[in-house]
Specification:
Strand 1 and strand 2 form a beta hairpin. Strands 1-2-3 form a three-stranded antiparallel sheet. The N and C termini lie far apart (about 65 Å). The chain has two domains: about 110 residues, DNA polymerase, domain 1, CATH 1.10.150; about 180 residues, Intergrase catalytic core (hpI Integrase, Chain A), CATH 1.10.443. The protein is mainly α and about 325 residues long. The N terminus is likely disordered. The protein contains 15 helices and three strands. Keywords: DNA integration, DNA recombination, DNA-binding. InterPro entries: CB (IPR044068), DNA_brk_join_enz (IPR011010), Integrase-like_cat_sf (IPR013762), Integrase_catalytic (IPR002104), Integrase_recombinase_N (IPR010998), Integrase_SAM-like_N (IPR004107), Tyrosine_recombinase_XerCD (IPR050090). This is Integrase/recombinase XerD.
Length: about 325
């Protein structure tokens, strides 16, 4: 029966990557350099998968190697991504950025002409980035209520994670990596060590959230300084994929019930987006919001400052005084 279930899944007809010693040599050097740069393992893993696809294409289709390809060969590769692998424009853009880094690391110049030509002809700059909508408090409460009413064994933990994400504006990985030694349960502050920008920062939560968190953590399997405050039922790490599924399930349920508009694009990162917009709405200086959220660039924070949610409120405020 299980075999039949697996057969029902439609698999994509993509050629498998044929690994060679030379390919592995390129990949190994690239991965080592990126690891030394401090890039997160998950990012390196994704980049390596894409790099293998590129190297396989030029080896098998063009019978060339990374140091012998020419300008038109890159055009053939991106045409292959578009027509045969049917990848989105945004994913093609990731390949473009990957190859820029790869050829820079390898100190090869044969990508330079294609790169400059692509920038000049705006081949990749016009790709649309699909932004998500910001979370608001009413929608958050609907989500939390749905989780609490569910039958899942981890519903209390999952709801607690989502509530702390909302309070702190943290990335999901930052919350899942919190350990007891990072938490000041008297002040309600949390030191984030494993951050995207590699810079430690401190975030806070409300007293109400703190009280719930204190009660919750008393029931953890492990409670040592190095143990995570959010644990699986066996004391292990909570996976990002699990939290994304829990969140997505609640969003779909609320949309099916007509409680959330079907065109709202809400993902778990919308909690961070919503916190940024909320802080700016309450008059918090933009440079303070930047530091609190751990944005590497002020431009990222400015995106929230000019978000659709703030523009909508601005138009409503203007309408009232007309």
């Amino acid at each position: 029966m299980k075999e039949l279930e697996n057969m029902l899944v439609i698999t994509t007809k993509r050629e498998p990557v044929k690994e060679t010693p030379k390919m592995n040599s390129w990949v190994s050097r690239f991965a080592e350099e990126r690891e030394f740069d401090g890039i997160k393992p998950r990012t390196i893993e994704n980049d390596v998968s894409r790099l293998k696809i590129y190297l396989d294409f030029i080896n098998e289709r063009l019978e060339k190697d990374a140091d012998t390809v020419e300008n038109h060969d890159f055009i053939k590769f991106f045409t292959y991504l578009d027509k045969e692998r049917k990848l989105s424009k945004n994913t093609q853009n990731r390949y473009f950025n990957l190859l820029k880094v790869f050829y820079k690391i390898m100190k090869l110049t044969n990508f330079k002409d294609f790169e400059e030509e692509s920038i000049d002809r705006k081949r990749f700059s016009r790709f649309e980035i699909k932004h998500y909508d910001a979370m608001d408090l009413d929608t958050l409460n609907l989500i939390l209520s749905g989780i609490v009413k569910s039958t899942g064994r981890s519903k209390l933990r999952d709801g607690m994670i989502i509530r702390l994400l909302w309070d702190t504006g943290c990335r999901l990985s930052e919350i899942l990596n919190l350990r007891y030694k990072d938490c000041d349960f008297e002040e309600g502050s949390f030191k984030l060590r494993n951050t995207k920008g590699k810079v430690e920062r401190v975030v806070v939560c409300t007293n109400e959230t703190l009280n719930i968190l204190i009660q919750y953590t008393k029931h953890n399997v492990y409670q040592g300084p190095e143990d995570r405050i959010f644990q699986s039922t066996t004391g292990g790490k909570v996976e990002r994929s699990h939290m994304s599924k829990v969140f997505t399930k609640q969003i779909k349920k609320l949309q099916d019930q007509g409680l959330i508009a079907p065109n709202r694009r809400l993902v778990i990162h919308s909690l961070r987006h919503g916190r940024a917009v909320d802080l700016l709405e309450k008059g918090m200086p933009i440079d303070i919001v930047k530091e609190y959220l751990g944005h590497a660039s002020l431009e990222t924070t400015l995106f929230y400052a000019h978000s659709r949610e703030r523009k909508s409120k601005m138009l409503n405020d203007i309408k009232k005084i007309l």
